[in-house]
Sequence to fold (125 residues):
Amino acid sequence: MTTLKVGIASYEEMKAHTMAMARGERRVAADEPKVWFTSTESFAKFLSASNRELLRVIAEKAPGSLDELARLTGKAKSNLSRTLRTMDRYGLIHLERGKRGRITPKIMHDTVALDLPLTVTHEAR
Fold:
């Protein structure tokens, strides 16, 4: 599989970055994060122990539906649906719609790499 590269940036930094790309002043580098969080706390919450366990179950058991995933994990389908939609938005999984509207979660990445600068970069100033 692949690695999902994530970064930490303030809302203002993300907005400036997006605007520079929209104006054609900047291109996304191949090694640049594709997903951004506004804090290490929000990143940690997204990849909590519970969410990592959920990803492990999806990867190992390959459930064919949300109902099956709910049975495997003992979690309410409504809570799973909300968590999985968030993971789908961030590109960690993909929710495939199959026969009769059945939704199947598929793992898109097997590793997450955090790009966390400890100093202010020249670009962010």
Notes: The two ends are 35 Å apart (CA to CA). The chain has a mean pLDDT of 90.
